[in-house]
Design brief:
It contains 24 helices and seven strands. It is mainly alpha-helical. The protein has a three-stranded mixed beta sheet with strand order 3-4-5. A two-stranded antiparallel ribbon has the order 1-2. Strands 6-7 form a two-stranded antiparallel ribbon. Strand 3, helix 21 and strand 4 form a beta-alpha-beta unit. The two termini are about 55 Å apart. About 5% of the residues have low confidence.
């Protein structure tokens, strides 16, 4: 039976009229949502992070062959080097790394900040690519020549920079750029340490400061993909493999409370000394290559007696976890061979402070890199020292020293990052020893309580605090609408005008723009005022006699602004009081550099939805 085209159209129209609601519901279910799009982007960033880790590995091997002339870890090479080699190599590496920064950054010209936390907390998520590449190369040279700094810094920096550049090329809004930066950081940590959970938690707590699912899901996706890309090249072997030990007694836990107290105090002291070291090097007023060379020279002087301070400390940490420190042929202190455990204890204590001084010299001089692995070294050294001291006093005889070393790693990381959850997960993923979780968890929470009491900032937030930025890392109500930040909703700023814009230019801008207010900025893009449309009404019929009037003459004082790291609940009074549709967003209230705009209607709509949802929940 044949159906004419006219009949088919009639039946089809009848079907649409009858079932249009069902069709729309089906469409909503199969439509490609923004959340799904973000997961795809995160997967792409994960691939980037894994490839960056692979590139970093081979680039590092090339740099080490250039400076060290021997294969292997920098510590192993330093132990077979002659005296002059140990002394000069880090200094030459510091000079080369400094020249890369000095000449490279001079070549690329002035660019915005490359600090990942800063572009998320007080920026629009835009990381400059050229500056990022120069810092990545400098990091390679520093670590490859024996500098006491971690490799994860360069990997995270380049991964986040490439992710941000991808978003900039696609002209995506700031909230998506910030998410991409977080995904880059997550993929970098996950790839560097083969730790996907720790990578996602690091980006959530440290970088974005937000554990809401719309952000955490992409971070997890990025970390997982980066880890699998890395495993496809390097396998699944854990970083550290301590001897197994089963915790079965409550009476074993008090020793780790004491260890948490010790690592908390030492961690806060390390942060304080790091601040002092940076200030001392900054007061030198010398070029960056001179400061890095001096920092490398200090590392070389320390390495004359303790070559174990070279590099990020991975090899030495593994020795501590396998109790090899008491059996090495090279163990010595003040030219004496070890004859009993007291000399071993003294050596471990000296090694702890030697590594701390080498890290202070490297980081304080301005070297680019991470502090994760050196912090783990310090924690392992302190933990091993603590465990061996207990054994000399006849306490905790059944607990191996390596267990104290591993728990010390986590509690030291907790003290310096102010994130016990991150420290627990990181140490677990690197050791794959679940039995150690109870003492590790206890030591981590004790250490952060002590460290927070003695020093206010973490190793990541202190540089931001010196710039006038405040970072809130852990929310009490995770994922709540009111806990979202200005940066989550921030859009591009209303295109500003310069303070010397003429009256004719202002009128032209208002005629071609839906906004009733135009921000006025100076040469540094700092917000200095606001021009309102209604203030120009008296000049509309003016003649040539007012051609000299400029924006500076008619502008109002700068309005109350908001910053990207502020919570929406915190800025709600500003939003309610503002007469602007787009509230200016600035880097900091002190710097006042215009970087975005917060849509007033969007904020009020978000709060309306939250209130409505809360009302329904209580009905």
């Amino acid at each position: 039976m044949r159906i004419s085209a006219a009949n088919f159209i009639v039946k089809f129209h009848a079907f649409l009229r009858r079932d249009w609601r069902r069709l729309f519901r089906i469409r909503e279910k199969i439509r490609f949502s923004e959340e799904a799009f973000h997961l795809l982007l995160a997967a792409g960033v994960g691939v980037l992070g894994g490839l960056v880790n692979l590139f970093y590995y081979y680039a590092m091997e090339s740099v080490k062959s250039l400076f060290l002339r021997h294969p292997g870890d920098p510590v192993e090479v330093a132990e077979i080097m002659d005296t002059w080699g140990r002394l000069i190599t880090p200094a030459l590496g510091g000079l080369a790394a400094g020249l890369v920064l000095y000449l490279g950054l001079k070549l690329v010209g002035p660019q915005s900040s490359t600090n990942i936390l800063e572009v998320v907390v007080a920026g629009d998520g835009k990381l400059p690519l050229r500056s990022g590449l120069m810092k990545f190369l400098s990091s390679l040279v520093t670590i490859g020549s024996g500098g006491s700094i971690g490799r994860e810094g360069g990997i995270v920096q380049l991964s986040a920079t490439l992710a941000s550049k991808w978003g900039q090329l696609a002209k995506w809004p700031p909230y998506r750029l910030r998410m991409l930066v977080g995904c880059g950081a997550a993929s970098g940590i996950a790839a560097a340490y083969n730790a996907p959970i720790a990578g996602a938690v690091f980006a959530s707590l440290i970088v974005l400061g937000n554990f809401s699912m719309n952000l955490f899901a992409p971070l997890v996706c990025s970390s997982v993909v980066a880890t699998m890309v890395t495993r496809s090249f390097f396998g699944i072997k854990s970083w550290y493999s301590p001897a197994p030990f089963d915790f079965t007694r409550v009476t074993q836990l008090p020793w780790f409370v004491l260890l948490g107290l010790a690592t908390g105090a030492f961690g806060s002291m390390f942060l304080r000394l790091l601040q002092v070291s940076e200030e001392l090097f900054r007061k030198m007023k010398a070029p960056i290559y001179v400061r890095l060379m001096l920092g490398g020279l200090l590392v070389g002087i320390i390495a004359l007696e303790y070559p174990e301070v070279w590099g990020n400390g991975y090899v030495v940490t593994n020795r501590l976890l396998h109790d090899q420190f008491a059996n090495e042929a090279t163990q010595r202190i003040f030219q004496f061979q070890f004859t009993n455990a007291y000399w071993v204890l003294l050596f471990l204590l000296a090694l702890l402070f030697a590594k701390m001084l080498a890290t202070l010299a490297t980081v304080g001089s301005g070297a680019v890199g991470g502090v994760f692995t050196p912090t783990l070294f310090l924690g392992a050294s302190l933990g091993a020292t603590f465990g061996l001291a207990l054994k000399q006093l006849g306490a905790a005889p059944a607990i191996p020293v390596a267990v104290f070393a591993l728990v010390g790693m986590g509690s030291m990381l907790s003290a310096t990052t102010r994130s016990p959850l991150l420290a627990m997960i990181m140490v677990f993923e690197m050791s794959l020893d679940y039995s150690l979780m109870p003492p590790l968890m206890l030591a981590c929470v004790v250490s952060i309580l002590v460290a927070a009491r003695l020093h206010p900032d973490s190793i990541y937030t202190e540089p931001l605090r010196r710039k006038g930025l405040q970072v809130s890392q852990e929310n009490e109500r995770l994922g709540a609408a009111t806990e979202r930040t200005v940066g989550d909703l921030m859009g591009a700023p209303v295109p500003p005008v310069r303070e010397n814009a003429t009256l004719k230019q202002l009128a032209s801008r208002f005629l071609t723009s839906p906004n009733n207010f135009l921000p006025v900025v100076d040469a540094k893009h700092q917000l200095i005022g606001l021009v309102a449309l209604q203030d120009l009404k008296e000049y509309l019929n003016s003649g040539e006699e007012l051609s000299a009037v400029i924006a500076y003459d008619v502008m109002r004082p700068p309005p109350v602004c908001v910053t990207p790291n502020q919570r929406l609940l915190e800025v709600l009074p500003v939003v309610l009081a503002s007469e602007q549709r787009n509230i200016p967003v600035v880097t900091t209230l002190k710097e006042n550099r215009l970087i975005g705009a917060l849509a007033r209607a969007e904020v009020l709509g978000l709060f309306s939805e939250a209130i409505a949802a809360g009302s329904k929940a209580h009905v």
